[in-house]
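In the laboratory, one determines a bound structure by crystallizing the protein with its ligand and collecting diffraction data. In a computational setting the workflow is compressed into a single prediction: the sequence and the ligand go in, and a structural description comes out. We illustrate the idea with zinc ion.
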Amino acid sequence: MNCRWTLRAAKGRWMVNISQQCSHGSIGLFVPPSPPLDPEKIRELQRFITLSKRLLVMTGAGISTESGIPDYRSEKVGLYARTDRKPIQHGDFLRSAPVRQRYWARNFVGWPRFSSLQPNPAHWALSNWERLGKLYWLVTQNVDALHTKAGSQRLTELHGCMHRVLCLNCGEQIPRGVLQERFEALNPTWSAEAHGLAPDGDVFLTEEQVRSFRVPSCRCGGPLKPDVVFFGDTVNPDKVDFVHRRVKEADSLLVVGSSLQVHPHCPREEAPNCNT
Ligand SMILES: [Zn+2]
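The predicted complex, in structure-token form:
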């Protein structure tokens, strides 16, 4: 059983609604077990939210597990615990056409499910806070577009978004859905069964399945990449500056669903040792 919670305004106070709901099926598989909620901790959170005047919220993969996306680091249910697979590395993607082919073949299979996932009550709560003027800014490490689907606008997607694709040569952007149609046109008889979904929409495929998959290029001939920051890459410095300014303007910071083990300044894989 997992506890679902939502936060809402009630008579000027910020209430935490707790409802015990069982999460079963594929969604429940990715939700880590949690200890029973401590009423005092909930009151503390209510006080914190009530007193905030300019609240900045930062979210990580943990907020999306109840939408059916596994996180990386949770015990037993996170990607690192369930598989020996590591996320794709930025340098490998740039250097190697076979790596890109494998990436896109897997991503093609995972896309219909990944793109259809929906926000859960935590995403909706943050969107409501924005509508009510309670949330000053939202920063997410997630690339799943679930905050956007919930209607959040005062939002920075620190690591980009899987719903956009860009050309590594000319920089042109296209919606990911358009690329899916091009994949389908190029691979009319290709089919593969998905074996599990990763936080970035990736799935697992065999080498034979991958080798016959055809990947389109940009109109300029350049390779295509999702508009996300892969491990080993760094976040755009302008984006980092922008978030720093929002943090300075805020009077309180709430972190939801992140282990904070990845530092946005740093190459993602080296983050734990980076102090800049
Ligand atoms: Zn191009």
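Residues 1-26, 264-276 have pLDDT under 50 and may be disordered. Keep in mind that any predicted model is a hypothesis to be tested, not a measurement.
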